[in-house]
Amino acid sequence: xxxxxxLLGDPIPDGFGRRGRPAxxxxxxxxxxVIQLLAFDxxxxxxSAALAITPPTLRKHxxxxxxxxxxxxxxxxGRLLGALMAEAEAGNITAIDKYLKRFDRHDLAFAPPKRDxxxxxxKKDAAKRDAKAPPDSxxxxxxxx
Length: 145
Fold this sequence. Notes:
The structure is a single chain. Helix content is 57%, strand content 0%. It is elongated, with a radius of gyration of 30 Å. It contains 8 helices and no strands. The protein is an all-alpha fold.
């Protein structure tokens, strides 16, 4: 099938060169681009400007991609990790190193926070703290009330 393409490789829509703006033709490449831009938290207005279309046209042709805005980052990252794993399985040393670094970064992100050493209070500060919180005893109960 010989389809007429413009200089950027996009198909030339029917009625091109006539009056009015030519109809937008969504392609798989543009759909992937929308998902990638959503993964970087681009607004619909900014995405439509990047595609040289209006926001209503973006919502009309790419509503499925816009509906999964929350999942866009996870989708892109999942694809990249899959490609990285394929390279690592093929024996690419750089890919193996990057994959292991991803594990380390993941482990650091979900590690329990380190507890800071408690600062040692002086005698006066400890006495003030103890004066504010009466001891757990019958007398302490009476003081609290």
